[in-house]
Amino acid sequence: ADEVVGDEIVADEIVERDRVILSSAPESAGEYATGGMDACLKCHDETEKHPILSILATPHGVMADERAPLSREHACQTCHGASAEHMKERDEGEPRPPVSIRFGPDTPSDLQNQVCLTCHEGNSRMNWTGSPHDLQNVTCASCHTVHSKEDPVLVKNIDPMVFLREGQAQVCFTCHQQQRAQIQQRVSSHPLREGKMECSSCHNPHGSVGPELLVKSTLNETCYQCHAEKRGPFLWEHAPVREDCSVCHTPHGSNHPALLKTRVPQLCQQCHMAAFHPSTAYPGPDFAGPALDYHSLDKGCLNCHSEVHGSNHPSGVRWTR
Amino acid sequence: AQDEGFDLEEEGGFEIEDTAKGNQQAYKEVTNLESEIELGFFYNSSDDQLFGNYNGFLDDRFYALGNVDIWRRNLHDWGDDYSVRLRGQNLGLDSRWAGAEFGRQGRYGVFFEYDQLPVFRSETTESFFLGLGTPSLTLPMPWTPGNNGTQMTDLDANLRSYDVESQRKRWSGGGSLEFTEEFGLDVRYDYETKKGNKLSAAMMGLSGGNPRSVVVPQPLDYRTQQLDAMFRYVGDDAQFSLGYYGSGFDNGNNFFEWENPYLPQATWNPTAGYNCTADGSPFPGLEPAGCGMGRKATAPDNWFHQILASGGYDLPHRSRVTLSTAFGWMLQDDDFQPYSVNSALTATTQAGAPTDGTDLAALPRLSLDGEIFTTVLDFRVASKPIDKLNLDLGYRFDNRDNNTPQDLYVRIRADSEDQNPADPAVVANDQARFNLPYSYRQHKVDADAGYRIWRRTDLTLGYEWKMTERDHQEVEKLQENTIGAILTSQPTSFFGTRMSYGHSWRNGNDYVGNRPFVEGNTPLVIAGDAASCLGSGLIPADECPFENHPLLRKSYLANRERDEFKFSFSIVPREDTTLALYVNYMDEDYEDSEVGVTNVRNWGPGIDLSYTPCERLSTHTFYSYQDFRTMQNGWSFTGTGAMFTQVTDPDRRWSSTDQDRTHTVGVGFDLGILPGRLDFGADYLFARSNGQIDLTVGPALTAGAPYPDSTSTQHNASVYATYQFTENISMRIGYLFAYFKQSDWAVDGLDPDSLSCSTNACVIGSGRDSEGYTANVVSWSLTYRFW
Q: Which of B156, B106, B169, B158 is nearest to B132 (CA)?
């Protein structure tokens, strides 16, 4: 079970004590217990509510890697902090203080995350500090399960018989419920439901230079990873396309084809209101009458203007060629 | 040091109890990597190919079920850091993935991956063209041309359905090398092909401003390479990385062309139409006889190179500074297509023709020589100077400097058009345009301050300023200020809530609606249009001349006020129950836009509930609703003599409201009937979307038929059972029912020749219907698991 906390120890007091321990030298804050990992395994094993032995099958448990926490002198306490006090024998009924660093709601997020960032602050996590998730007190342990053989947030959902039952997206959808619903759209969506993409295909939850935690430095650069044909530059650029794909597209799923925000021709008419057909009010299809208008039906404007992402034809200024 | 620490035995620590380590076999299974091989089959009953989109179940047949994960590494404490992993997922489906990894943890690693993605769009699309799947479509013979599909009497007999589909295949490889504990290198290379087709348009020509077009399949033959290399340093207080990212796109089809199925039109060059000689005999030199050709350029090859450098440094007082930069270079220099593919018309319009002004139709250059320099700079300082205070300040600069040369190109709207370059009317009639290389710069400053106001309750206040500068567009400087507040609270372990509110104002320095029109046209055209515009006496001088209605405010450039509110609440009333509620609301108001988008609203609530009454049973359910609405105004006007009176006639206004509402419900459970031996689970997902368009028109316009709703409905139910025969062998059976139906007014009930055509204009459509599926899939597999 989780650490036993006596009723007299209220959360804020624990928080304050944790802060002192982490921000101070081990010698002054508390003592490390000897005995390495075995000392902890005497009580904690796979029967815990959060089984712990599986961590030995993960990179954190590889003893031959001197960077791995369990290969270090203090073993479990490398991450959980100096916890000799936790291990001392207690009289019956005497509350047992928890380990110094607990990865759960009782410990401030920055204290928890600082433990992980000690080793993992580089690479794609360099921009964690000050990122939206950091500012919202999201902890590494909110998404990662390091004691598990395979961290669920790093697992792809590969079973075509079930939808988003496991894998990374399920972890993200714990908080991002609206995106969970949008991904289910069948008219148009990215292949997350089928496990061919992950949230991390486009987003870096650890902080990024790009907007909306995107993996590349701009939104369009993120899209070009898979849609390089739209990069150009083209002779005849379409201004919003050059600037921001999301002017027309909504990436998480749409009730319209091609992840469009709204229907064509209305979508195009948000920016194109020229003489003749661009400004015409197009009615719905009328099978009883003459108005099966090609401006709104089938591909709408794209029945002729098929090259809306840009044209490299010398006469392609209207994106028809 | 250990010898200075607390000694467990001396202090009388715990007795050694039975632990997992006491059972060596169990200990080994728990702490060793697990491998498994799963083999079996799927049977799909559905021949609705749309069901196979992304997953590969394209036909009603058996599919092999194969998943492999062989992961070998000695026990964690064997002093061995070698590991090898071979994986294969969905190997019997077109959505297969395979990967191999080998390495020594903390020293080096290499990997290889293969990934396949089937994309299926339609199986009901029809075309009369021959050569589908190639970049050159030909007409069947005999062929009777017409002004529209009805007159093309050979059309119906030659219609054949084809699948709109494509497939991506990606090969990836790379590795990492740790030079020291701090220095390392990561490299990844991807090569991807995308082959198949997409729906596109083949436009032959126009009559006045009206088209003659056919919706056709355009072949895809894309190859993309990407290289990502990053050298990194990760120290205790400082980290940096220096990297290169490169992307190269190669299109196997440089053009796409088709034969003209239409009758020649009076305004077309005689050589461009069907049977295009004056006496109706085949035009010499064109094969098949007499068919004019149309051609368009496809997506050009392009390259992108980017250098990235990032660094972070931990400052005293729990502060950190990061700086990231990225310098990129986009290149595109594919050869231009000629203005016209019809050999009889290209003599004076090919590249190399005089460019001294005597031949305005000559291509000004052989290729674009397009290049865009991109710069992104991000600087951030974050600090937690005291326990309860959290500060963050950032600056971001995003620059896209488009250095593509600007030239004057003749706009020959399609291959049917008379391209007499010596005709000054070509230029005078707005048939020549300057290309507009759009550049873009954005500065953004943001600041956030968070303070713990109560027990595990934080209030964060934020401010963001954003300035965007654009070239050749209606607004040169657009500024947006955003203020926001977020309150998060989790005072107890069984209750948490989050509320956020943000308000932003976006204002441009000035909206000059005709700037791109003026900068893209020749002075001669602008002068002529301005004179007629001013001469009308109806349009203010600063709005003359114009292309779009002077009152239009393009949605992404318009002044806007935006409110966004989010609220979520979670409670754990009992140890076995978690309930979460949320609602999101966003409203954008474009109050200065008389024409264009006037309001966007997106809102929706949701609920999540999980209930785990016992260790054997866990259940979950959710409901979500989303309502996305866009309101916009239009103003219908002609380009002929009545243009200026119509532009100012309020009775010619119209408005449209597009609204999409989606309900999504999910429910499922997992049941351990015989825990560890027989497990059972089920899921059900329902989603229904309804799209509505309400159009109202002014008294001067004719109200047409209302738009039907566009709807989509899906049900997905799946059940599975897993039985563990032995420690190593288990069996899994599964069943999936998937149903999807949509109605789409844009395509339903339309044949290729259904679209309204006049003597002046016509589009021959795709003939497709909105598609759906009803699929039943069963699966059976045996899994062998070993350690």
A: B158
